[in-house]
TrEMBL record:
This is non-reducing end alpha-L-arabinofuranosidase. It comes from Actinacidiphila cocklensis. Belongs to the glycosyl hydrolase 51 family. The gene is abfA. It comes from the Bacteria. InterPro entries: Alpha-L-AF_C, ASD1_cat, GH, Glyco_hydro_b.
Length: 499
């Protein structure tokens, strides 16, 4: 049985736990909005047509900031289509996802939904196929109190209070040839800088996110960030990172080590941003908004997408069903985001409902939790105070895709009266025996210890079997003389709450 020893030092603080780390993402894509969040006529729908069964699950998930309305969708979107009297809203083609958009849910409705879930809105503007003025118009419509043409229009449309949106994304994945209106880094950097500068003339306290690379595998990765930031550094606050992982060709060992790639990605973007900042002799630091991350079976999606030639409203798209192994990876990626809270100060699990999502729904029917729901909701509930850097002494293994990786990964958070430790065991066969020195945390009692694992690492929750996989109490956890001991099953994710 592999053994690992972890030392936790209360003084080894990385950064505060940022609530925005637990953000998510709602795109007008597939059934995320329509029959996901919004389904008038559903037995649980409220007067605004929002499914309250989904609202309850979103609250349990503990997501905080929600990025909206895309994604690739935003690059063909006219925001004006989606406000005002519903019967006058046009149906448009969404080229990004080859679907029809009815515009029956827009900014004002989505803001109402956010209030039900107590979440913050992070809004993306279309810089790909529109210009500075539509972005400024949207800002005026959304945030200006009243007394101007567009703020009065919002009031007339039934939303008297401004939305007061703080975080704005300047487009989406502008480096990707799949993006409607994709650009070179130089072109995008100039447009992003000018759009950001204009938006800050309206409100200097906005938090603006410039597009980084769509993934660390992009051929322009690194150069893209450098060039874009050379133009936009002074006007923006965040650079985005996007990363999706999947198991390739049955290589589960590599897949389970995906978090090491995320860590490398963050390192590289931080280094590039700081390099540009230094060249500019700037005091300012650009942080990372990791505003798309998840497991996504992208290869399978690319193959199936070719078959769909119809223009449909809310088709079933990207409805990945997640396994236990996927949930372990998601839990581990979230641990990495926590560990990098010094520079990753906002993140969004992509996405929230039905589309590569922790929550699934059936039209007119049930809503349920995917396997990936659990590590996210438990971490969001337990992590608070400050993130501390664990010293992990564990065996390593060789992966095909990510080099040498530790069998055990860990992170801890410490608050005044409670702390939490999150762990993964990446071993495919064997349980691991862990000892954790928790003396410096001042914790003496285990309040909760839960593990997500299964003898079938490909077990899933489905419409027919909604509760096939869920976390269980880890009864091996014990604490004596400041040392916590616990056994972690193979391919597992674990959370321990201490008091
Ligand atoms: O989240 C699904 C899609 O992935 C988003 O629309 C896009 O930004 C990314 O390529």
């Amino acid at each position: 049985m592999p053994r690992a020893h972890i030392t936790l030092d209360r003084q080894a603080v990385i950064a505060p736990v940022r609530r925005r780390t637990f953000g998510s993402f709602v795109e007008h894509l597939g059934r995320c909005v329509y029959t996901g969040l919004y389904e008038p006529g559903h037995p649980t729908a409220n007067d605004d047509g929002f499914r309250m069964d989904v609202v309850e699950l979103v609250k349990e998930l503990g997501s905080t900031t929600i990025r909206y309305p895309g994604g690739n969708f935003v690059s063909g979107f006219r925001w004006e289509d989606s406000v005002g009297p519903r019967e006058q809203r046009p149906v448009r083609r969404d080229l990004a996802w080859h679907a029809l958009e009815s515009n029956q849910v827009g900014l004002d409705e989505f803001a109402k939904w956010l209030k039900l879930t107590d979440s913050e809105l992070m809004l993306a503007v279309n810089v790909a196929t529109r210009g500075i003025l539509p972005a400024l118009d949207l800002l005026e419509y959304a945030n200006h109190p009243s007394g101007t043409a567009l703020s009065d229009l919002r009031v007339a449309n039934g939303t008297p209070d401004p939305h007061d949106i703080r975080m704005w994304c300047l487009g989406n994945e502008m480096d990707g040839p799949w993006q409607t209106g994709f650009m070179t880094a130089d072109d995008y950097g100039k447009i992003a800088a000018r759009t950001a500068a204009a938006m800050k003339m309206a409100d200097k306290d906005l938090e603006l996110v410039v597009c980084g690379s769509s993934g660390s595998g992009m051929p322009t990765f690194g150069d893209w960030e450098r060039t874009v930031l050379e133009h936009a550094y002074d006007h923006v606050d965040y650079v985005s990172c996007h990363a999706y992982y999947q198991e390739h060709d049955g290589d589960l060992g590599s897949f389970l080590a995906s978090a090491t790639d995320m860590d490398y990605f963050i390192d590289t973007v931080v280094a590039t941003a700081d390099h540009v900042g230094f060249k500019k002799r700037s005091d300012k630091k650009i942080n990372i908004s990791f505003d798309e991350w998840n497991v996504w079976y992208l290869k399978e999606h690319m193959e199936s997408q070719k078959l769909d030639t119809e223009w449909r409203h809310a088709p079933r798209q990207l409805e990945d069903t997640y396994t236990v192994a996927d949930a372990v990876v998601v839990g581990n990626l979230l641990m990495t985001l926590l560990k990098r809270s010094d520079r990753v100060t906002s993140a969004s699990l992509a996405q929230l409902v039905n589309v590569i999502a922790p929550i699934m729904t059936e039209p007119g029917g049930a809503a349920w939790r995917q396997t990936t729901f659990y590590p996210f909701s438990i971490t969001s509930r337990l992590a608070s105070g400050e993130v501390i850097r664990p010293v992990v002494d564990a065996p390593t293994y060789q992966t095909g895709r990510h080099g040498e990786a530790s069998v055990i990964d860990a992170v801890a958070t410490v608050d005044e009266d409670r702390s939490a430790v999150f762990l993964v065991n990446r071993d495919l066969e064997e349980a691991a025996q862990i000892t954790i020195d928790v003396r410096s945390l001042g914790s003496s009692r285990i309040a909760e210890a839960v593990t997500l694992a299964d003898s079938d690492v490909y077990a899933k929750n489905t419409l027919a079997e909604q509760h096939r996989v869920s976390p269980a109490a880890n009864t091996t956890a014990a604490i004596a003389d400041g040392v916590l001991t616990i056994d972690l099953p193979p391919v597992s994710w674990t959370a321990i709450a201490l008091r």
